[in-house]
Design a protein that fits this description.
Largest sheet: none
Region (Disordered): 76-99
Low-confidence stretches: none
Number of strands: 0
Order of helices and strands: HHH
Coiled coil: 1-28
Structural class: mainly alpha
Number of domains: 1
Strand content: under 5%
Protein name: Mobilization protein
Shape: elongated
Number of helices: 3
Keywords: Coiled coil
Amino acid sequence: MNDLDTRIQEAQARLNDLKAIARKQARQDETRRKIIYGAAALGIVSQWRKTEGKSDDQQAEDSGRADRMMAALHQHVTRQSDRKFLGLPDIASSPKSTE
């Protein structure tokens, strides 16, 4: 019986180790996903900000899109240290939306 209890404890320890590895991988995957989507969003904004070969109307439209996208991204940056790093105002001093 003691041998069986030992084997059960070892199996539970292995299971806990595997669960920890899975959680770590999930965190890494989520971080990678955020980096990829963030880079893609900034790439889109960069394309919108380019003026080469665009009409004045298209430049104005794309500039507005870029401004709205960056404003939306900035609204989702809530950690104060991140806002400071990005040069954004404190949340308390940010203008409130009137929507």
